[in-house]
Design a protein that fits this description.
The chain has about 350 residues and is of the alpha+beta class. The protein folds into two domains: about 140 residues, Probable inorganic polyphosphate/atp-NAD kinase, domain 1 (Rossmann fold, 3-Layer(aba) Sandwich), CATH 3.40.50; about 140 residues, Sandwich (Tumour Suppressor Smad4). The chain is about 20% helix and about 30% strand. A hairpin with a 2-residue loop joins strand 11 and strand 12. The termini are far apart.
């Protein structure tokens, strides 16, 4: 609509020179197209922009649990430049407001990121023309209970973990699924993951990779001393309850995405259910998740002949099995000269 000012939030890991250079190019490109860039005060300072810079708007620092709140009004997208930690921070800001997030990778694997810092021109073009698509990811909600009393609540995009507070003491945890006891584990901890988080901590702990289109939750024990201690894929409607029992360790630590934590003591329970909000990720291409796995993990795919070659081979195999295979149009065996008996 004419006269409507477009606003895009930009969050940058300003401790890295590469991020600062990429952010400056991004902001310059968006500003040239008439899009206002909203940045937190610290980023404005670190990027050397100043609030008087044309096309720049101050974005208040967000609460890590409730997000940007009312200050998110009118923001159509957040572009985050950094590793997965910075992208998780950006997701905390905008998830409750249903604002899509476009991650620009400046870390190592960067599974949440969509583009590399070398692709700033493509990012600007996609944002200006709104040619990106949006993919939704499930989250989990977490509550700490003491009896029926709520002590703490948060959410996770990747995973929630219950971990040892002291290295030398194991935890005694009772795991309950959908109101029924599953198993008691002496362990280093337990994590509950989303499909998005299945390529993060859960992957390192031996859990399976879950495709983003699969609506599920994943429970992974951490170094459990038990015969039945395997990763489990649960229904998205499941309710996971993990209680800390009497044992050697008097307390544990609960972490959400490795960013927000609280203490868990004996008798307390961690409740995990599918989250109320979904993370919306902006995608620049239609590349399937398989391609992302191959690219991010550097998987070897030499020798794969490709879909076209497989189709050609299937056609050749079908022809070889046909009763008419190997005959010419006049019924002779292929390779048989005219007038010569077989």
């Amino acid at each position: 609509m004419p006269g409507v000012v477009r606003r895009v939030a930009v969050l940058t890991h300003t401790g890295r020179d590469e991020a600062i250079k990429a952010a400056s190019r991004l902001i310059s490109g968006l500003s040239s197209a008439g899009i206002v860039c909203a940045l937190p005060p610290a980023d404005i300072t670190n990027l050397g922009l100043g609030t008087a810079h044309p096309g720049i708007e101050v974005l208040p620092e967000a609460d890590p649990v409730v997000g940007l709140g009312g200050t998110a009004a009118g923001i159509e997208l957040i572009v985050v430049l950094g590793g997965d930690g910075t992208i998780l921070r950006g997701a905390e800001w905008v998830m409750a407001a249903d604002i899509p997030l476009l991650g620009v990778n400046l870390g190592h694997v960067g599974f949440l990121a969509e583009a590399e810092s070398s692709e700033i021109d493509l990012i600007v073009e996609s944002v200006v023309n709104r040619t990106y698509r949006v993919e939704e990811r499930s989250t989990i909600d977490v509550r700490i209970l003491d009896g029926e009393h709520l002590l703490w609540s948060s959410f996770a995009i990747n995973e929630v973990t219950i971990e040892k507070a002291a290295r030398e003491r194991m935890l005694e945890l009772m795991v309950e699924i959908d109101g029924r006891p599953l198993s008691r584990w002496s362990c280093d901890g337990v994590l509950v993951s989303t499909p998005t988080g299945s390529t993060a901590y859960a992957f390192s702990a031996g859990g399976p990779v879950i495709w983003p289109g699969v609506d599920a939750m994943l429970v992974v024990p951490l170094s459990a001393h038990a015969l039945f201690a395997r990763p489990m894929v649960l229904s998205p409607r499941s309710r996971v309850l993990i209680e800390m029992l009497d044992g050697m360790a008097p307390e544990a630590v609960v972490w959400c995405d490795g960013r927000r934590s609280t203490i868990l003591r004996r008798g307390m329970r961690v409740e995990v259910v599918q989250g109320r909000h979904r993370l919306r990720l902006a995608r620049l291409s239609e590349a399937p998740f398989t391609d992302r796995l191959v690219h991010k993990f550097g998987l070897r795919v030499e020798g794969w002949r490709g879909a076209a070659q497989l189709r050609h081979q299937a056609a050749r195999d079908a022809a070889a099995r046909s009763p008419e295979a190997g005959r010419t149009s006049d019924g002779r065996e292929s390779g048989q000269p005219d007038g010569q008996d077989g």
